[in-house]
Specification:
5 helices, flat, 75% helix, mainly alpha
Length: 189
């Protein structure tokens, strides 16, 4: 643990050998923290993750808001207009969902609702990530279609959707299933 005001350590966290085995088996090392401390840590981690994603979404949303005012916007096809609108709606939804945990935290501050905030904010963040993926897939489809034609746009859109599906959903869900199965199989003690 670093002192207050000290820069974070760049050293990897050192776990005792027994804890390395627990992590490898999908069982996390024991933390010496109360339920309240765990909720505090969970909320801080979640808000930090949202802060990272939110910046990118806001830049994308701002860019999308300027597109209709460009000279060539009137020349796009109905398909391209649909892709643009899907990107715009996805970015707007992502903004709403990713900013919501902060609003929730501010409104429920000091009311003893941290567990509720963590649960709801986690769901909002997942919805925000899904909306971000929809927006980015639509943007890739639109830009590729404008630059290279409909076929390239569709291929690029599908490839982008698959990439998001694999990296943002399939990998973590696969690991989640493995960890839950190992935890359920581990002897209670």
């Amino acid at each position: 643990m670093s002192a207050v005001g000290a820069p974070p350590s760049t050293e990897p966290e050192r776990l005792p050998p027994a804890d390395h085995e627990r992590v490898a088996s999908g069982v996390p090392p024991e933390r010496n923290e109360t339920d309240v401390e765990r909720l505090d840590r969970n909320l801080i981690e979640l808000l930090q993750e949202v802060r990272v994603v939110q910046t990118g979404v806001q830049v994308l949303f701002a860019f999308l808001l300027t597109v209709p005012f460009s000279a060539r916007f009137d020349d796009i096809t109905d398909f391209q207009r649909g892709a643009y609108f899907a990107a715009l709606i996805g970015a707007a939804a992502a903004s709403v969902l990713l900013i919501a945990p902060t609003a929730l935290h501010r409104i429920l501050f000091r009311l003893g609702q941290k567990e509720y905030m963590v649960e709801v904010s986690n769901r909002l963040a997942i919805g925000g990530l899904l909306s971000t993926a929809v927006s980015m897939v639509a943007v890739m489809l639109l830009v590729s279609d404008v630059m290279f034609g409909a076929a390239a746009g569709i291929v690029t859109g599908v490839a982008t959707a698959v990439a998001f599906g694999v990296v943002w959903a399939a990998l973590p869900l696969r690991r989640r299933r493995l960890v839950v199965a190992r935890r359920n199989a581990a002897p209670r003690g």
